[in-house]
Specification:
This protein has a 5-stranded antiparallel sheet, sandwiched between helices. It has 4 helices and 9 strands. The protein is of the alpha+beta class.
């Protein structure tokens, strides 16, 4: 009969803006694998939803790396744009545009996280629209106006795609101003 032994499982959160912090789990387990407890699963699920990448090391340490989201009000440096693209999806970056304030929240794994960052900084929901930016594509193919946050029937948009052509033009102008002009490349 296997005896349960107390094993410490460590979660370390590394953020690009804060010092790493650690969650120490002391759980009864008979294995060195990461714990399969309700508390462990709830905490890791919560942190993943908040934009963290979860990686397990040596069977008993889980490292969480916060996905970077930056808010732009001026042109991004091309090296920084490439770095943000490479962090999660490699070929593109998610963005949320605030068309009233002229801001872009860029990066992260989910549009909703970038949207939340803008809302916390004074943006209004009806001014926020999500999409994807592909910097290595031809200028006419760089933008995708698709995101779950765009589903807002009360604002006249009932699908994931931004349906209003004038709104698409505003978003395109903002992306050209803050990300890449049609004549620019990241090469």
């Amino acid at each position: 009969m296997l005896r349960n032994k107390s094993v410490t499982h460590v979660l370390t959160l590394h953020s690009l803006t804060f010092r790493p912090w650690t969650l120490d789990f002391r759980l009864l387990t008979n294995t060195s694998r990461p714990p399969n407890s309700l508390a462990y699963n709830q905490i890791t699920t919560y942190l993943v939803r908040k934009g963290c990448d979860v990686t397990t090391h040596n069977g008993n340490e889980t490292t969480l790396m916060a996905a970077r989201i930056i808010v732009l009000d001026q042109k991004i440096d091309p090296v920084l744009l490439r770095s943000i693209c490479d962090e999660v999806f490699t070929s593109f970056v998610k963005f949320v545009a605030d068309i009233r304030l002229g801001l872009l929240a860029v990066g992260g794994e989910m549009h909703a996280d970038a949207e939340q960052k803008l809302l916390e900084n004074g943006s209004h929901q009806s001014d926020l629209w999500g999409g994807n930016f592909y910097p290595d594509e031809a200028p006419a193919r760089r933008l995708e106006f698709t995101s779950f946050i765009n589903i807002r029937p009360r604002d006249g948009n009932s699908s994931m795609e931004v349906g209003d052509e004038e709104l698409q033009i505003e978003i395109t102008k903002l992306c050209s101003k803050l990300l890449l002009d049609p004549d620019d490349t990241l090469a």
